[in-house]
Description:
Blueprint: H1 3-10, E1 18-24, E2 27-34, H2 37-42, H3 50-58, E3 61-66, H4 70-84, E4 91-92, E5 100-103, E6 111-114, E7 122-124, H5 130-144, H6 151-154, H7 162-165, H8 179-193, H9 198-213, H10 217-233, E8 249-258, E9 261-270, E10 273-283, H11 292-303, E11 312-314, H12 322-330, E12 334-336, H13 342-357, H14 363-371, E13 378-387, E14 390-400, E15 403-404, E16 410-413, H15 420-436, E17 447-451, H16 454-467, E18 473-476, E19 483-484, E20 489-490, H17 497-522, H18 536-546, H19 549-554, H20 557-561, H21 568-577
Parallel strand pairs: 8-11, 11-12, 13-17, 17-18
Antiparallel strand pairs: 1-2, 1-3, 4-10, 5-6, 5-7, 8-9, 9-10, 13-14, 14-15, 14-16, 18-19, 19-20
Helix pairs in contact: 5-10, 9-10, 14-17, 15-16
Amino acid sequence: xxxxxxxxxxxxxxxxxxxxxxxxxxxxxxxxxxxxxxxxxxxxxxxxxxxxxxxxxxxxxxxxxxxxxxxxxxxxxxxxxxxxxxxxxxxxxxxxxxxxxxxxxxxxxxxxxxxxxxxxxxxxxxxxxxxxxxxxxxxxxxxxxxxxxxxxxxxxxxxxxxxxxxxxxxxxxxxxxxxxxxxxxxxxxxxxxxxxxxxxxxxxxxxxxxxxxxxxxxxxxxxxxxxxxxxxxxxxxxxxxxxxxxxxxxxxxxxxxxxxxxxxxxxxxxxxxxxxxxxxxxxxxxxxxxxxxxxxxxxxxxxxxxxxxxxxxxxxxxxxxxxxxxxxxxxxxxxxxxxxxxxxxxxxxxxxxxxxxxxxxxxxxxxxxxxxxxxxxxxxxxxxxxxxxxxxxxxxxxxxxxxxxxxxxxxxxxxxxxxxxxxxxxxxxxxxxxxxxxxxxxxxxxxxxxxxxxxxxxxxxxxxxxxxxxxxxxxxxxxxxxxxxxxxxxxxxxxxxxxxxxxxxxxxxxxxxxxxxxxxxxxxxxxxxxxxxxxxxxxxxxxxxxxxxxxxxxxxxxxxxxxxxxxxxxxxxxxxxx
Length: 578
């Protein structure tokens, strides 16, 4: 695109916050955001770098989307970069996009939270906090009765579903409300999402006051919290947020660039202690010729798409992006470039971590690419263990960034049944149900790994579908080390780093399941429970020392009394009873 044509096109653009895309046919070359779209696009007539100069020459059109706030422009830019992977943007290879709300293009529209909105839908957002979006969407459904089910489940029903009984939907699927009346209820929802906060805040406030007058204080408190979320909804990033009294969480970033790839190392400090470290790979076209500041700005927005921001960020250099700086300031994040002292040493450590990985491939990113999913940074592995159907248990282990996250391990006793498929179905359904009902304090994983073949994977997927938990799942069978997906099997080289990652998760899930099974098995009642003077702890010590009831029977009195808690009288009783 020639400079004169670019200036001419820019003169028709709005002087409002928004996002612009430089296009080559149907392909997106570059995505940017601006407080004043017209002014920013016009500046590309005199490109600030060789990379941008090449991009402008290759472009033949510009597309623009206006947003309500500068923050929305910032977040929409991150979403579009994630979706289109434009070749001239610095882009994080392994991360998530921000949540949005859409009203589908259907005679009876569905309201839905999504990270990949339909082109035909009415889309609102993006937003920074998914939990706040979920609270607001539930309030909208309770107030106006919009459906949340898929079109497939909507069609062909002969009776209302549970959402109708819970007051979340007016059940247009079975004619409990006609389509015209339903569409009339959609309009206030559309107006609220467009910025009219009072449409939802007013009925919530009235309901809160009614509950308080009726002395239903628990419901009044619940409505108060919901009202607060609704009132903050359209102000996300628009007003200053007070920082906490102290800086409990601090993220330290280090950046290294080599060729067209950049590595960002992140260290996390909580309460003054270093608790976590990880590395991320970014595509940096033409070496991100603006340098480290450009990479930092791109990383911060894209990385914190679904993560809580820290209280402070320590950086090796200033990022020089005014919109990102304004966003961080509004969210109460302190940003520092330390020159000396402990903080400077932390930045140096982050830089060393970044340089150690520069030019290398991230196994999590490689796995995501191989499976064609958005991310594989957080993986949960599942296995079941039992003995001919007895003492059946399940394990749920978590890996983050390729390393075991042991505080996030979970385990569960299962029904005693000699059926691996049924046991796996119960285990995954338990995890999915807790996630859907927001009873699990862990983030949703990017990927579920099932220890087993096609049968176990199918059982897991049935559980996911039944509980409506949309998380990709794959299986890994031990026999041929083939990775099984719903539509194919992968046979990767034995030295592939992403295969090694899955093997580590699978083996750890197996180890954790077997360990728990042994614990449960050893707790099974034995004849020792009938011996006077032998309680559960003494029984465990006896079995721990001798291995089995048979060995206890064969032990001498001297050996028995050497066990803590077993006196001579008790030892004689054991010998006489066994």
